[in-house]
Specification:
Helix content: 10-25%
Mean pLDDT: 76
Structural class: alpha+beta
Distance between the termini: 73 Å
Shape: globular
């Protein structure tokens, strides 16, 4: 082999090694990110098995009003027979809780919030296994603006969420 051939082979090896290193680092980073998003990292910082985030049983829409359907990050969510939240922007959807903001309406504020929904933050929590799926079993709702204006149980602390 002459010097030009040796240089070309060495360059190819360097490029190949760099590519493999970059791919390995990206794979490790993606795995760590997925584990962190799913809440699967341990207290020691080591990444464990990736845990799938729970679903929420949603009764939104005529098709699912009676039976509900399991979904993740729904834009519209029925919280109870009295309260719903729409146009939800989810900031977090993890293994233990989900947090989002949206527009809250309920039969407790129809005179004021039907045309002008209230801004609110929803937190889903307490996942449990139902028919082999993790489902959030509770919600907490904080309405922005005038807390205490509406004296309704859906706005008081943690409330149960449909799981069947």
């Amino acid at each position: 082999m002459n010097r030009t051939t040796t240089t070309k082979i060495s360059r190819k090896k360097v490029v190949l090694a760099a590519s493999l290193t970059a791919a390995t680092l990206l794979g490790a980073f993606a795995t760590a990110q997925a584990a962190d998003a799913g809440g699967a990292s341990s207290a020691s910082g080591k990444v464990g098995r990736v845990v799938a985030a729970p679903y929420v049983l949603n009764h939104y829409g005529e098709k699912y009003a009676d039976t509900g359907h399991a979904e993740r990050r729904p834009a519209n969510l029925v919280l109870s027979e009295f309260t719903s939240i729409s146009k939800v922007k989810w900031q977090q959807w993890g293994a233990k809780k989900a947090v989002g903001t949206g527009e809250v309406t309920g039969n407790w504020c129809l005179e004021t919030c039907l045309d002008k929904p209230l801004k609110g933050t929803i937190t889903l929590s307490d996942p449990k296994t139902v028919n082999g799926k993790k489902i959030y079993a509770a919600f907490t709702l904080k309405v922005s603006g005038q807390p205490g204006t509406y004296d309704f149980e859906d706005l008081q602390g943690k409330r149960p969420l449909a799981t069947r």
